[in-house]
């Protein structure tokens, strides 16, 4: 048994995390920081499945999942938490069971709900970090605004076809999502197509960004939009400036 302050690790737990603890920059200190954190994933679909798996396996202390949907057969090309037997079941219920089996040392909980302007603050204020598993820019902007209000880090990710993007928001330390997208874009009226590996790539980067923020390691994508084109095989970073007149984080708001 190893105790680091109020954080306790069993021998089996330390063995489970052995390979990442051996990373020189990581060590037991980063593992302790992870176990102290509460991560909120909004949406447990293509992106959220990947994010939740890697944060669970990494050993975050508490994971809260929010999703209102049931598993459908059209989800199965990309939402790797689910199998054919899960079709018709609530995603949150299935995800809690499977993630808890992956790592019984992580406290996994979930709520069948749709995040909106009326309830978003209740969820965000209880989290140390918020990760985007959504498929709606309207809801992403609502979450962004709440994260700015409560000064919570927000990892944004989105996909379409072979393309995806990631942006890490540290409120008041860099641009927020509204600096990039000031106004809510029109909602897609058609089904957004996607190949399964695209949310896998983007979700994995989101999970890595979240781990970096929670442990204080590395250089997160604050002030940058990372764009991935899977079809042509390139990753590009674009510098994003914080806007003084941003309706969410601007000094003149």
Q: How would you describe this protein?
A:
By secondary structure, this protein is of the alpha/beta class. The chain contains nine helices and ten strands. It folds into two domains: 1-32, no CATH class; 37-239, 3-Layer(aba) Sandwich (Rossmann fold). Helices cover 34% and strands 20% of the residues. The strands form two sheets. Strands 5-4-3-6-7-8-9-10 form an eight-stranded mixed sheet, with helices on both faces. The protein has a two-stranded antiparallel ribbon with strand order 1-2. It starts with a strand and ends in a 14-residue tail after the last strand. The mean pLDDT is 96.
Structure at a glance:
The protein is α/β, with parallel strands linked by helices and 253 residues long.
User: Domains counted in the coordinates: how many?
Assistant: 2
Low-confidence stretches: none
Termini Cα gap: 51 Å
The CATH architecture of the largest domain is: 3-Layer(aba) Sandwich
Instruction: Name the CATH superfamily classification of the largest domain.
Output: NAD(P)-binding Rossmann-like Domain
Give the topology string: H per helix, E per strand: EEHHHEHEHEHEHEEHHEE
Global mean pLDDT: 96
Q: Work out the strand percent.
A: 15-25%
Categorize the overall geometry: globular
In CATH terms, what is the fold-level topology of the largest domain?
Rossmann fold
How is the biggest beta sheet arranged? 8 strands, mixed
CATH class of the largest domain: Alpha Beta
The count of DSSP E runs of length 2 or more, i.e. the number of strands, is 10
Structural class: alpha/beta
Looking across the biggest beta sheet, what order are the strands in?
5-4-3-6-7-8-9-10
């Amino acid at each position: 048994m190893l105790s680091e302050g109020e954080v306790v690790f069993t021998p089996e737990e330390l063995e489970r995390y052995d390979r990442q603890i051996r990373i020189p920059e990581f060590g037991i200190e980063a593992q302790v920081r992870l176990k102290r954190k509460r991560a909120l994933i909004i949406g447990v679909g293509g992106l959220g499945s990947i994010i939740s798996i890697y944060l669970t396996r990494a050993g975050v202390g508490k994971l809260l999942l929010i999703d209102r949907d049931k598993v459908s057969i059209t989800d199965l090309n990309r939402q790797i938490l689910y199998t054919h037997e899960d079709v018709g079941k609530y995603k949150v219920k299935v995800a809690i069971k499977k993630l808890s089996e992956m790592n019984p040392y992580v406290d996994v909980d979930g709520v069948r709900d749709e995040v909106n302007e009326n309830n978003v603050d209740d969820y965000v204020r209880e989290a140390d970090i918020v990760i985007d598993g959504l498929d709606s820019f309207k809801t992403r902007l609502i979450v962004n605004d709440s994260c700015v209000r409560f000064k919570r880090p927000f990892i944004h990710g989105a996909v379409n076809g072979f393309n995806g993007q990631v942006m890490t928001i540290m409120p008041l330390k860099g641009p927020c999502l509204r600096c990039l997208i000031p106004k809510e874009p029109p909602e897609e009226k058609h089904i957004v197509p996607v190949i399964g590996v695209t949310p896998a790539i983007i979700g994995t980067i989101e999970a890595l960004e979240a781990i970096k923020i929670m442990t204080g390691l590395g250089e997160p994508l604050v002030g940058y939009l990372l764009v991935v084109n899977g079809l042509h095989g390139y990753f590009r970073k674009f510098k994003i400036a914080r806007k003084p007149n941003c309706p969410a984080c601007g000094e003149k708001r």
